[in-house]
Amino acid sequence: MKKIVLKILGIVLVAIFFLQSNMAIAASSLSDVNKQIEEKEEEIDEIQEEKSATMNEVEELTLQISEYQNQIDELDSKIDNLNNQISEAESKINEAQAEYDKQEELLEARLVVAYEEGETSYLDVLLASESITDFISNYYLVTELATSDAELLESIQKQKEEIEQAKTNLENSKKELDTSKASKQSVATQLQSSKNEKDAKVAQLSSDEKQAQAELEQFEADKREIQAELARIAAEEAKKQQSNGNNNYNSVANNPSSSGYIRPIVGYSITTGWYGYAGHTGVDFSGSGIAGKPVLAAKAGTVVTSTALKNSDGTYRSYGEYIVINHHDGTMTLYAHGAPGSRLVREGQSVSQGQQIMSVGTTGNSTGYHLHFEVRVNGKPVNPAPYLP
Ligand SMILES: [Zn+2]
Questions:
Q1: Which residues surround ligand 1, an ion (CB under 5 A)?
Q2: pTM score, whole prediction
Q3: Parallel, antiparallel, or unpaired for β 380-382 and 371-377?
Q4: What is the per-residue pLDDT across 229-252, written as a single tens digit (0 to 9) for each?
Q5: Do 182 and 268 have their domain in common?
């Protein structure tokens, strides 16, 4: 019997231990996960700050690139314009060249004619002329033509040279623009490469942020799980405690308290406490089916009172059937309202702890079956509850 009691007690203790340790583990996990959530949130904040700063840099770079691109576009349009002017000049030069070649050919042809017709000197023309009118006409023709042709050629040549000079100027301007464009393009390329780096960084930070968010969600899920686990453990513990409490009122759990007392009755709890009503100098145990249940000596001792208090008409009064035990440690216990004739011990008799001394009744000043129990220290009633397990 004792072994079984120890075994059951052991199981109860182990269960309590595990409950408490699970509770402790869950509580410490909750604190861990709260810390993790806090850290993760800080990490996300940092990532978002860096991302936002980098995005601002990207925006700034985009503006700069677009400005450079505008300048390059402007240069391109100027260069195109110059190219057009250059090719226009080229075609004019070609035209002039063609004109020159043509005029030169014409002059050569005329000179050949003039030569074939004789010396184109004044005398030659004079001699070749049939008349003075003819001479004037011929001379005029040759010299004027020659002069005019030479002048024309010279003019064409000059015009051509001017166009060539203009073309050279245009080409120089174009070279300058090309150089400027190349330098701007190089800057734009650098900016673009810098922007590409920042874009990559933003992408990386976004990915980091996503990762951290996912981790945060996981931690929050963990937290919910732990909280649910804590709630479950708490509910289980409450249930266990309730059943442990019930066990205390069963024989198995009626172990002596630190003051060395056991409960004077098992399976029932205190329903009216110390001064539960004015002048109530003890505690009452009651509950369904209590009538006739054994009343036990709370501690070993000597019976100092075992009697029934009755009126003159034979009816019970006050404590009714009652017993007082002296425990020889300055304390005494009193058990009242026992069932009529149920007292099992007489005055002067030694009793052991847990020994049945009478049965529960409702004799004396009582309105229903219950056990009235008192503890007296040096003869004065005190609250019995702290003495009981
Ligand atoms: Zn009472």
A1: 282, 284, 372
A2: 0.45
A3: antiparallel
A4: 777 776 676 566 555 444 333 344
A5: no
